[in-house]
Amino acid sequence: MRDFEPVHPGKVGIYHCGLTVQGAPHVGHIYKEVVFDVLRRWFEYAGYEVTVIANVTDIEDKILAKSAERGVPWWAHAYEFERELHWAYDVLGCRPPTYEPRATGHIPEMLEMIQQLIDSGHAYVAPDGSGDVYFDVKSWPAYGELSNQKIDDMEPAEDADPRGKRDPRDFALWKGHTEDTPRTASWPTPWGRGRPGWHLECSAMAGKYLGTEFDIHGGGLDLRFPHHENELAQSTAVGQKFARFWMHNALVTAAGEKMSKSLGNGAIVRNVVRRVRPIELRWYLVQSHYRSVVEYSLASLEKAATGFQRIEGFIARATEVTGGVEPATKLPVEFVAEMDNDLSTPAAIAVLHNTVHDGNKLIEDGDSPALRENLAAVRGMLAVLGLDPLAEPWVSRTGASEELTEILDGLVGALLEQRQAARERKDYAASDEIRDRLKALGVVVEDTPQGSRWTIAPHQPTEGN
Ligand SMILES: [Zn+2]
Question: For residues 2 and 44, which has the higher predicted lDDT (pLDDT)?
Answer without folding.
Answer: 44
